[in-house]
UniProtKB/TrEMBL annotation, chain A:
Any one GO molecular function term: ATP hydrolysis activity
Keywords: Amino-acid transport, ATP-binding, Cell inner membrane, Cell membrane, Membrane, Nucleotide-binding, Translocase, Transport
Pfam families tied to this protein: ABC_tran (PF00005), NIL (PF09383)
The keyword DNA-binding is annotated on this UniProt entry: no
Protein name listed in UniProt: Cell division ATP-binding protein FtsE
Organism of provenance: Pseudomonas fluvialis
Automatic annotation (TrEMBL), chain B:
Native source organism of the sequence: Pseudomonas fluvialis
Family note: Belongs to the binding-protein-dependent transport system permease family. CysTW subfamily.
Residues that span the membrane, as ranges: 20-44, 56-80, 92-112, 150-172, 192-211
Main location: membrane
A GO-annotated cellular component: plasma membrane
Name of the protein: ABC transporter permease
Biological processes per GO annotation: D-methionine transmembrane transport
InterPro entries tied to this protein: AA_ABC_Transporter_Permease, MetI-like, MetI-like_sf
Annotated localization: Cell membrane
Location of the ABC transmembrane type-1 domain: 17-211
Keyword Membrane tagged: yes
Keywords tagged on the record: Cell membrane, Membrane, Transmembrane, Transmembrane helix, Transport
Membrane topology, as annotated: Multi-pass membrane protein
NCBIfam families: PRK10782.1 (NF008049)
Length: 335, 221
């Protein structure tokens, strides 16, 4: 659906090229929710804006839905943008227009539908995001979550196949964030909408994304399925994001575990294995005692997962490790 | 009380009031017609805006600054040949309007530029992302969003024009200011002075409260 070939971007500052995005390749499939995560200045915002050419690439090729975006002239670019939705961190609604006028605006600009057809489509969209009653209010009269829903309805007005989300939940409180993410997941499921979102919160990635790319200093440093990247982070930046999400300080934890006797290992479960009674079985079979040092059981999008850090003492530790290895879990021996 | 005002020629005052209103209305109309596009152009050519044209921006800026730095009374006199060319007369209401417009347009254009800068960049970006043309961005997003600011700019400009019309008497334009100078000042008719001052004051108050009300009506923030 979206393909980037050696796309890069540099800004001219005082006659010098400052690279914002090093040459990067990326492939995003149809119907996928793809997350780009990075700290501010990592280049994720630039990358997102290259997709609808709010930023002009310095080189490389971008192909979206079979169309070479980099080759479009200004007329072609306008038509192309009309088929792409975008939502923003600060919503960017027109304060001088009502909710209904905001939502209908992309259709009015495109100028293809009659006034009545637009009004009907706007009604539909407002129903879809649960704001039918607010149609004649102005954005200033709405809460943050409601404003973002208007933003989403507006982005969907022209029935695009792709939705770009620029830090769409960063200005919202946790509860509202959950509701907006849920809405995005629904749209992805029900309309087959391809979603590209950027964020600096691993939590957002974990809750809605299928795949993720981690960005650091203008480069994609790691990418893959969310479960893979989240549970087995390789790059230091990714590890930091995961730790932030789990509110774990690895160094402090390491120091704490120094006083714990026995072997320390980390088990990672995914899917149904998360709920299997594995620990008891292994303990009985190998005669080890275990204590749980740290742990978390949660979901990645719709898949449950668990991650436990254990200390094993007594019994046949090698047999226990062999049992774990034979089971449907990922085993890391930490000490 | 009656005795104090007995020397006043009320007909004269009525005529002068009408002249002031005509000068104000005429010059305000042309100031907005010329200044609004100029202000939009200034904004668009500004750094990091849609056109981002340093050369044109510098040129327009210079023009605006030069016109704004001329005292209006000098502009009135310097403009006489051009006024003759435009209106066929340098006298009366028609003779006053070109210098009034020349004096107020750069001022108004700057205010419009400032009002447009107040519009959130994100709104321009969102409109671009919808596939809007530059023309649509200006007319469907920028101007509606800046409407309260532009109305406030028109109000300030109108009030500035009221004070400019008072000087237009110098080129024989008539109006309340002219009456105040000729009768109130040169002929020591304090009563005429008082009446004209009160009328001008009322006019300014009226313009301001009308402008405020419109700004309020169109503000949605």
């Amino acid at each position: 659906m979206i393909e980037l070939h050696q796309v890069h971007k540099a800004y001219q500052v005082n006659g010098r090229d400052i690279p914002a995005l090093h040459p990067c390749d990326l492939h995003i499939g149809r119907g996928e929710v793809f997350g780009l995560i990075g700290h501010s200045g990592a280049g994720k915002s630039t990358l997102l804006r290259l997709l609808n050419r709010l930023e002009q690439p310095s080189g490389g090729r971008i192909v979206i839905d079979g169309e070479d975006v980099t080759a479009l002239d200004s007329q072609g670019l306008r038509r192309f943008r009309q088929r792409l939705g975008m939502i923003f961190q600060h919503f960017n609604l027109l304060s001088s227009k009502t909710v209904a006028e905001n939502v209908g605006m992309p259709l009015q600009l495109a100028g293809e539908l009659s006034r009545r057809a637009i009004a009907q489509r706007v009604d539909e969209l407002l129903q879809r995001v649960g704001l039918a009653e607010q149609a004649h209010k102005y954005p200033a009269q709405l809460s943050g979550g409601q404003k973002q829903r208007v933003g989403i309805a507006r982005a969907l007005a022209t029935a695009p196949k792709i939705l770009l989300c620029d830090e769409a939940t960063s200005a919202l409180d946790p509860q509202t964030t959950g509701q907006v993410l849920q809405l995005l997941a629904e749209l992805n499921r029900e309309l087959g909408l391809t979603i590209v979102l950027i964020t600096h919160e691993m939590d957002v990635i974990r809750r809605v994304c299928d795949r993720v790319a981690v960005m650091d200093a203008g480069r994609i440093v790691e990418q893959g399925a969310v479960a893979q990247v989240f549970l087995h982070p390789q790059h230091p930046t990714t590890q930091r994001f995961v730790q932030e999400d789990e509110a774990v300080d690895a160094d402090a934890q390491h120091a704490d575990f120094a006083h714990v006797p026995g072997r320390i290992l980390r088990l990672t479960f995914q899917g149904e294995a998360t709920y299997a009674p594995l620990l008891g079985q292994v303990a009985r079979r190998s005669g080890v005692d275990y204590s749980i040092l740290a742990g978390r059981i949660d979901r990645i999008k719709d898949v449950p997962y668990g991650q436990l850090t254990l200390a094993l003492t007594g019994g046949d530790i090698d047999a226990a490790l062999a049992c774990f290895q034979a089971a449907d879990v990922h085993l890391e021996v930490l000490r | 009380m009656d005795a104090f005002f007995s020397h006043i020629d009320w007909y004269e005052i009525g005529l002068a009031s009408l002249d002031t209103l005509l000068m104000l209305g005429g010059s305000l109309l042309f100031t907005v017609l010329l200044g609004l596009p100029l202000g939009v152009l200034l904004f668009l050519c500004g750094p990091r805006q849609l056109f981002d044209n340093r050369g044109l921006y510098a040129l327009l800026s210079l023009l605006v600054n030069v016109l704004r730095s001329l005292p209006f009374i000098i502009l009135l006199i310097v403009m006489i040949p051009l006024t003759l060319l435009l209106t066929g007369t340098s006298l009366g209401v028609a003779g006053a309007i070109p210098p009034l417009v020349a004096g107020a347009t750069p001022f108004f254009a700057r205010l419009v530029e400032t009002a447009l800068r107040e519009v959130d960049r994100g709104i321009i970006e969102a409109t671009q992302a919808m596939g809007a043309s530059t023309r649509q961005i200006i007319f469907r997003a920028l101007l509606p969003e800046a409407r309260p600011g532009i109305i406030a700019a028109i109000t300030v400009t109108a009030i500035t024009l009221v004070s400019y019309t008072a000087m237009a008497g110098v080129v024989g334009a008539g109006g309340l200011g002219d009456l105040a100078i000729r009768f109130g000042y040169q002929r020591f008719q304090t009563d005429v002075m008082l009446v004209t001052v009160v009328l001008m004051l009322l006019l300014v108050q009226l313009l301001q409260s009308l402008g405020d009300r419109l700004v309020q009506h169109y503000s949605r923030k």
